[in-house]
Amino acid sequence: MSQWVNICKIDDIIPATGVCALLSNEHVAIFRPRHDEQLFAISNIDPFFEASVLSRGLIAEHQGELWVASPLKKQRFRLTDGHCIEDESHSVKHYDVRVKDGNVQLKG
């Protein structure tokens, strides 16, 4: 049975950035694109290089959707579902994320 796990406070994530969290044994990148409480969570592992770096990527908007560009070779992953625009066979896992009582929570 999945349950919500507290990760950090919403104020710990600076708007327009991402952070890395550990959920069980999975590296998760949590992104806060704006100054509101909207969050996105995808795997932090860049599937092209098997490196835990996506939380350090650049958040950008493309065709009305938010993406993160890997800091390594700039492949883009859609924040809503982890889809890779350059090669869908390298898409990453998406995680449910929310803010409750000021806490960022992932569904584990």
Architecture overview:
It is a single chain. With 108 residues, the chain is mainly beta. The chain contains no helices and 12 strands. The chain has strands at residues 4-9, 17-23, 26-32, 40-43, 45-46, 51-52, 58-62, 65-69, 76-78, 94-95, 97-100, 103-107. A hairpin with a 2-residue loop joins strand 7 (58-62) and strand 8 (65-69). The chain starts with a strand and ends with a strand. The mean pLDDT is 96.
Topology (SSEs and partners):
Elements: E1 4-9, E2 17-23, E3 26-32, E4 40-43, E5 45-46, E6 51-52, E7 58-62, E8 65-69, E9 76-78, E10 94-95, E11 97-100, E12 103-107
Antiparallel strand pairs: 1-12, 2-3, 3-4, 4-10, 5-6, 7-8, 8-9, 11-12
How would you concisely characterize the structure shown here?
Helices cover 0% and strands 48% of the residues.
Q: Count the DSSP helices.
A: 0
Rg from C-alpha positions?
Answer: 13 Å
Mean pLDDT: 96
* Principal-axis shape: globular
User: Sheet with the most strands?
Assistant: 4 strands, antiparallel
The percentage of residues in β strands lies in: over 45%
Any low-confidence stretches, pLDDT <50, length ≥5?
A: none
Helix content: under 10%
Number of strands: 12
**What's the N-to-C terminus distance?**
9 Å
State the secondary-structure class. Answer: mainly beta
Q: What spatial order of strands do you see in the largest sheet?
A: 2-3-4-10
Based on the structure, what is the oligomeric state of the protein chains?
Answer: single chain
What string gives the helices and strands in order?
Answer: EEEEEEEEEEEE
